[in-house]
Amino acid sequence: MTEISLFSAFVMGLVGSGHCLVMCGGIASSLQLAQTKQSAFVTTLLYNLGRLGSYMVAGALVAGLGAAFAKQSTLFANTLNVLSGVFMLLVGVYVMRLAATLNWLEKAGKWLLWQRLVQLNKYLLPIDRKSKALAYGALWGWLPCGLVYSALTWSLQASSSLSGALIMAAFALGTFPAMLAVGQSAQVLSTFLNHQATRIALGNIFIWYGFYLLIIATDKLVH
């Protein structure tokens, strides 16, 4: 799986979960309204499992496409390595909120895909069955998100569709601790992850990892 390991993808999800709380936290919270504590957790779990499933499908599709092109050109494969490094730098700046480096990507995803998929909401609301919670999560897994798209650049250079799916599964699992938190614990976690000092520290992790990927990719291009 090249320099991108499943553990790295998991850490990316874990580190970026503060952004997930902003993007999807409200959706998850809305599913918990008017439910018992136990049923709220089950609903939230199903929602996130649906989201994980969509991430895996996207990872498999992107990896399959990338693998097909990579077989035709070594230069293409090395270019993907560079692309992954660049996106890590963009994610780092994005997480630190120094600049909206990924907004253009989210706008493109909204225009190309999300405007059509969101219309399926009418068939799933209200969430009165477990199957609807799972399907609702699968639908919202396609919500335009710069962090998810950046993770997909890793899947793009995976050796197979299965590897791409596993990378995105690991990324999704990294977001689970934050997304499964409910009530006061979710509020405390959100406050911590979105604190300026936390965002700067986590953003630097992405930036340094991005430089690492670029160094590896540049070495491959030279040799």
Automatic annotation (TrEMBL):
<dbReference type="InterPro" id="IPR039447">
    <property type="entry name" value="UreH-like_TM_dom"/>
</dbReference>
<feature type="transmembrane region" description="Helical">
    <location>
        <begin position="162"/>
        <end position="180"/>
    </location>
</feature>
<feature type="transmembrane region" description="Helical">
    <location>
        <begin position="52"/>
        <end position="70"/>
    </location>
</feature>
<feature type="transmembrane region" description="Helical">
    <location>
        <begin position="200"/>
        <end position="218"/>
    </location>
</feature>
<dbReference type="Pfam" id="PF13386">
    <property type="entry name" value="DsbD_2"/>
</dbReference>
<feature type="transmembrane region" description="Helical">
    <location>
        <begin position="133"/>
        <end position="156"/>
    </location>
</feature>
<feature type="transmembrane region" description="Helical">
    <location>
        <begin position="6"/>
        <end position="31"/>
    </location>
</feature>
<protein>
    <submittedName>
        <fullName>Cytochrome biogenesis protein</fullName>
    </submittedName>
</protein>
<feature type="transmembrane region" description="Helical">
    <location>
        <begin position="82"/>
        <end position="105"/>
    </location>
</feature>
<keyword id="KW-1133">Transmembrane helix</keyword>
<keyword id="KW-0812">Transmembrane</keyword>
<feature type="domain" description="Urease accessory protein UreH-like transmembrane">
    <location>
        <begin position="9"/>
        <end position="212"/>
    </location>
</feature>
<keyword id="KW-0472">Membrane</keyword>
